[in-house]
Amino acid sequence: MFVRHTGQTFHAFVQRQRVLTACQLLRDARLKLDAVAGMVGYRDTQSFTHVFKRIEGVTPGQYRRRMAGAF
User: Fold this and answer.
1) Global pTM value
2) d(Cα 29, Cα 20) in Å, to the nearest integer?
3) What are the Cα distances from residue 17, in Å, to 33, 55, 69, 70, 71?
4) What confidence tens digit (pLDDT) does each residue in 1-27 have?
5) Distance between CA atoms of 8 and 22, rounded to whole angstroms?
């Protein structure tokens, strides 16, 4: 039923929501990547980076650098 309404699995939905929240947190350069990973529910940065890159197409560090240049 969830897939029918959202077009994605619940697991994919949760991962996307975590990454969207991480994108907001990564804009704060004071937060370390491992802290951001923990804040969005990942126990290690390797898993976080893998999921983040699959969804966003860049690593969290690359994303942060791009956003720093955008302001």
Assistant:
1) 0.89
2) 16
3) 17, 11, 24, 23, 24
4) 999 999 999 999 999 999 999 999 999
5) 20
